[in-house]
Structures are given as C-alpha cells and as structure tokens.
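Good morning,

Attaching, inline, the backbone tokens for the sequence recovery test we're adding to the shared suite. The designed sequence is right after.
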C-alpha cells in the first residue's frame, strides 16, 4: 500500500505560451495545485522566435518549487510542445538557442528535404510530410548557418528531453516527441537509418527512445537542490502535449477522437496501427505512435486556432487590456443559426489539414455594413467548427473508421458557444471534461505509471475525478450549418487559393529587391 504522501505526482507542461506544473493527488483524483509562468521567448530578427534553454530551465524550476512546496512527490513527467530542441556538446553544455516550432527560418531546408525524399517514401517511414516546424529542418539549418557550433554538437535534445536531462543527467525521448523530428521510423519505432544517412547525420545525435511512461531515473542531487524536490523522485517520459491531454481526457481505444485546441488545434483519432497511406500524406495528416503502447494516432492540425480567436478578440476590444470574451460571446449568440456570414477562412498560419497549403492565408468574406463585432466573432468560431468537421470527415473517409466519441479539451473550451457550435456543425454529441490543465495532468498520470503507482493506463485514467459536460447538437441548427458548410465554407479555400498563391509570390519578389 502506497502512503498518501506517495500519491502525489507532478505533471510539467512546456507550452507555447506558458510553462506549467500541476500537483496531482491520485487518492482524491484532483489537481491540488497549479503553478504557471509565461514561456520565455525572444525575437532576435524579424520572423525569428527562439527560447533560451537556460531561461526555460529557470522558469520550470520556479513552477516546480511553487507547485510542489511542502508536498512529498513520488514522480514527475513532462508534456511538451513537440518540435523545438537544443544542441548540446559532449559535456552537456548548451550550444544553440531552442528555435521555436513556429519559427519559419528553415523553409529552405524543408524544401530541400522535399526535393530529396519523395512524399510517399517519407510518409511510409515517418508518417509525416515536410514542414519547417520539424526538428530535422532546424538541425540542418544549424549545420548550414552555424557550422562551427554544429561541429561541437554531440546530441540534439527536444525540449522535454533537455529538461529531463537537467533533472536526471540522463538522455531519453518518448515515441511521440521523436515522431515530430521527421527522423523517426514508425515501422520500427527507431531512428531512421535511411533518413539520417541521407543527410549525413549520425544516429548518436539523437537520444534513446522509449514509450511514454517509461521511468528514466531519479532526480539528481543538484536538481533536487534547485527544485526543492526530494532525491527519490522518479522522472519518467511524458509526451507531445496534445497527446498527453488526450490521455487525460480518457482516450485509450480505437476510434476515440479528441479535439485539443489551445494556441493551435490538433484533431486526434486513435488507430490500431501505423497507416503509411500516401492519401493521408497528400492531405497533410500525420500518422504516428500514441502515448500508449500499441496504439497510433491520426492527427490533423491548424496552427492558429485559439491564437486566431485571441487575436480577433483583441482587435475587437474597445481598449487595451484583456479581450472581452464573455461580451463577444454573448453578442455572437445573436446570429447563431440564422445569419449566414460573415465567414472566415481560418488560415492565419497556413491551411493546416486537409489542404496542406502553408501559403494559404486567412480571409473574411461576406461582410456588410449591418454586421457588428459579434457577427465577426461568431464567424470565426463557426469557421473553426467547420474546419473541425472537414477534418473529421476526411479522417473517417480515409481510414474507414467511424469516430466512436468526440471529446473537446484545451483553453478554448471556456467558450461555451464554440463547444455548442462544434456539436451542431459536426452533428456529434461532444464531451467537454472539466479538467484543468489536461496536458500537464496527462503527464502526471504518466509519472504515476513510471513510478509503479498505477498498474496500467486504465488504472491511471480511472483515478481522475472530474465532471464531464455533455453538449448535444441542436437539430435545427444541424440542418442550418450543414447548408452553410457545403454551400459557403467548403468552396472558400478553392476560390481563394490562386489569390493567396499570388500574394505569396509577390512577397517573394519584394524580398529579393
């Protein structure tokens, strides 16, 4: 029997906008403390975004101290943004900044990968198609632009691996984070020899790979002193933040769909196996290992979802300060189910899936003088709901697997209107777990698995105690939004594609002058 003090687990979440630490008590099934700090980021040049690895470490230490103060902690694990990493030398000295996943400086390297490896071949290995977000493009950028620094590099550590190394002195990465490097073979769950050889990169550049929930080691004496944690804390592998959140929300069986929307949106369908289908590649869906062993995930994504909503809310705010979400939501309700438009093409950072067009741009159509800010806000929420439906339909059609459930998680679930619109637009009953910081909680569950506190994932998930809000689709609005979806939203991308491509080419010409 484990004592009450040993039922406490820390889940760390390394997010795009915030770093968080939650203290989870598996005896009560509740999060008993949350600590949060803004994610340190700086912009050394126009269009560049970087994280100082030491600043990340210092910030997460502060979160750990605050969340764990006065409590005995049995284990910890890390949920994280996936593609960002840092180069270290043989002694572990940091050599490079951590280039943010949304930084676009490695466009040329991404294009070179596309030229060197055919799409179908790359997808059959990695389950991904090329994007400047991936770790491999950043590694190639470092080698080409900072060659002296790169030559000194011994290991490229994804951010959760870097923090785990600072905690334990050991190097490791889980399957889900490794999958976001573009150098991981989904068929063997090992680093891809053909890809690494093709770009003259040694296998030793990457850390060893294990499933999420694998215990890596106990916290070092130095890290214990810096964080205030006891030295018997077991540090285990976590995973990609969206997938950790999906686990906390209960996704552990084939066909379960989780809509995880924070800064970005990830639509995740659990699969029984890796599907190296070129049809999925052409629509930019990713197919890769899930947090749990012997399950895979099919992932659609929109890079600007919650961030698009926040951007619009700030633009519509009457003055500086926090966006007036409650007011905008109330005003938006006035036109729900009875006004067609204005309509957004929600491509503020490319189209995401299923078009896979990184040159597509956002657009607002159908605006008239009679429209107010509530209409503009409603149009954005409806359009994100339409994006969800389009991707869900594509996933089911390409895999021939029906969605067994639809769960909404992430910060945007605070907007009840958006949850209702997703139910109406997809014609699905949706579940909205009232679970704070789902990604960090998922990491805490993996910490409990790694520490041997839970016998399996079902045991870990069943320890949670929280309410589920069930949102039913409104039959009349289902019919209404079906018409808007087919007649207005679906034709919008095709109609604007040549315009957006022309804008991209004009900007390229301007940059050369």
């Amino acid at each position: 029997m484990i004592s009450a003090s040993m039922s406490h687990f820390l889940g760390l979440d390394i997010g795009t906008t915030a770093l968080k630490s939650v203290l989870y008590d598996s005896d009560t099934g509740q999060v008993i403390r949350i600590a949060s700090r803004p994610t340190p980021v700086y912009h050394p040049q126009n269009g560049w975004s970087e994280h100082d690895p030491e600043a990340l470490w210092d910030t997460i230490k502060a979160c750990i101290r605050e969340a764990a103060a006065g409590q005995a902690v049995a284990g910890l694990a890390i949920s994280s943004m996936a593609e960002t990493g840092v180069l270290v030398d043989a002694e572990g000295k940091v050599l490079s900044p951590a280039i943010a996943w949304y930084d676009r400086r490695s466009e040329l390297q991404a294009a070179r990968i596309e030229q060197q490896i055919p799409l179908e071949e790359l997808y059959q290995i990695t389950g991904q198609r090329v994007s400047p977000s991936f770790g491999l493009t950043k590694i190639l950028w470092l080698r080409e632009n900072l060659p002296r620094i790169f030559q000194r590099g011994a290991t490229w550590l994804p951010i959760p691996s870097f923090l785990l190394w600072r905690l334990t002195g050991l190097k490791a990465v889980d399957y889900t984070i490794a999958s976001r490097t573009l150098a991981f073979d989904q068929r063997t769950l090992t680093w891809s020899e053909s890809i690494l050889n093709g770009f003259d990169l040694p296998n030793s550049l990457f850390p060893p790979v294990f499933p999420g929930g694998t215990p890596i080691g106990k916290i070092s004496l130095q890290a214990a002193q810096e964080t205030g944690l006891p030295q018997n804390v077991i540090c285990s592998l976590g995973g990609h933040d969206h997938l950790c959140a999906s686990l906390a929300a209960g996704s552990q069986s084939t066909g379960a769909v989780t809509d995880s929307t924070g800064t970005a949106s990830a639509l995740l369908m659990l699969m029984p196996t890796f599907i190296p289908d070129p049809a999925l590649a052409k629509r930019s869906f990713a197919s890769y290992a899930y947090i749990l062993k012997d399950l895979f995930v099919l992932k659609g994504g929109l890079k600007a979802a919650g961030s698009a909503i926040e951007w619009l809310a700030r633009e519509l705010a009457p003055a500086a300060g926090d966006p007036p979400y409650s007011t905008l939501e109330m005003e938006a309700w006035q036109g729900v189910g009875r006004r067609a438009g204005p309509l957004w093409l929600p491509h503020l950072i490319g189209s995401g899936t299923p078009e896979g067009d990184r040159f597509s741009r956002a657009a607002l159509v159908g605006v008239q003088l009679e429209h107010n800010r509530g209409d503009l806000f409603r149009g954005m929420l409806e359009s994100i709901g339409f994006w969800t439906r389009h991707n869900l339909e594509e996933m089911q059609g390409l895999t021939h697997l029906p969605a067994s459930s639809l769960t909404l998680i992430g910060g945007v679930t605070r907007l009840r209107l958006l949850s209702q619109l997703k139910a109406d637009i997809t014609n699905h009953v949706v579940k909205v777990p009232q679970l704070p910081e789902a990604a960090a909680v998922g990491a805490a569950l993996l910490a409990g698995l790694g520490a041997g506190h839970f016998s399996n994932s079902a045991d870990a998930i069943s320890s949670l105690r929280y309410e589920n809000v069930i949102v039913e689709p409104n039959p009349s609005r289902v019919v209404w939004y079906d018409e808007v979806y087919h007649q207005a939203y679906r034709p919008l991308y095709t109609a604007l594609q040549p315009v957006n491509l022309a804008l991209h080419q004009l900007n390229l010409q301007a940059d050369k002058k």
